[in-house]
Amino acid sequence: MTRVHLDRILSICGILAPPMMIFFILLAAYFTPGYNHITDTVSKLSEQGTQHPGLMIAGFITYGMLIIGFSYALYLRLHHGIKAYAAWFMLTLYGICMILAGIFQATPGDKNAPLNPEGIMHNVAIITSCISIMTGMWMFAGSVYKKPSWFGFTWFMFGASFLGLVLSIIFAIQSEVPAAGLLQRLFYLVLLIWIEIILIWLYKLSFQEKV
């Protein structure tokens, strides 16, 4: 298999990641009685003791694996420079953290409930995933801003990452802000749109190379 073919396959995997994650969230929410998309976070769908945690656990793990493929597709395209390597590492770390967020379930109860060890590991994975995806976006923007094939994407990426940062800060102080679920979804929406646009463009660029 040539590098171009592998690049296309991994790009398709990444393109599937955002709609796959949305599908699992909606499916798990449908089978979780009393779940509210406005007030409840995504982690609540896989928390310990819930009726069907396996649905969202599968969602986290599947999404994480597809993101790892996405990060390697970017590496194949930008396999040079410190920023390109940093972007690959941070995006891969993001995918690994999402897998861990599925393996370790959230602590049951509201946000004021005491955390158990598994819940702590889940929260650490989620927090690390947020930091890594934001850093990966900045590193990727810095690695392509001089490339003609990515013209215009730098400001889009910086804008998306800044908006994501603002939303993540607001979500981090959710104890003082209502509608935690809605805020988290807005944050995820920014990330998923960024991933989808980058990968569609990456897939298109693969056809400009000789197989």
Short structural summary:
The chain is mostly helical and 211 residues long. The chain has six helices and no strands.
Outline the structure in words.
The chain is mainly alpha-helical and about 210 residues long. It has one domain. The protein is about 70% helix and about 0% strand. It contains 6 helices and no strands. The protein has helices spanning about 5-30, 55-75, 80-105, 115-145, 155-170, 180-205. It is globular and about 50 Å long.
User: Helix fraction?
Assistant: over 70%
Counted by DSSP, the helix tally is 6
Estimated structural class: mainly alpha
> What is the H/E string?
HHHHHH
Q: What would the average pLDDT be, to the nearest integer?
A: 84
**Net shape:** globular
N-end to C-end Cα span: 10 Å
Number of domains: 1
Task: Describe the protein's topology.
Layout (H helix, E strand, L loop, with lengths): L2 H28 L22 H25 L4 H22 L13 H28 L8 H20 L7 H27 L5
Helix pairs in contact: 1-2, 1-6, 2-3, 3-4, 4-5, 5-6
From the structure above, extract its key features.
211 residues; mainly alpha; 71% helix; 0% strand; globular
